[in-house]
Design brief:
The protein is mainly α and 65 residues long. The protein is built from 4 helices and no strands.
């Protein structure tokens, strides 16, 4: 899992980015969906987008709350 131990604990180690993009229902799945979209934007290196390690760390921190 790209987003660290908290996401792995909640959703298991085998969740794909595609599955994360389908996240709906609870607030954490929605957060994971948005974090996945941000991560994909970071990999694309779009101007003004945070670097991928920062996105992953921020998502893990947010999921832990």
């Amino acid at each position: 899992m790209v987003f660290g131990p908290v996401a792995t604990q909640r959703y298991g180690p085998d969740m794909t980015l595609r599955e994360a993009l389908d996240g709906r229902g609870d607030i954490y799945r929605t957060l994971l969906r948005e974090a996945t979209a941000a991560l994909l934007n970071a990999y694309y290196n779009a101007p003004g987008v945070a670097a991928s390690p920062h996105v992953a760390a921020a998502a893990d921190t947010a999921l832990a709350r």
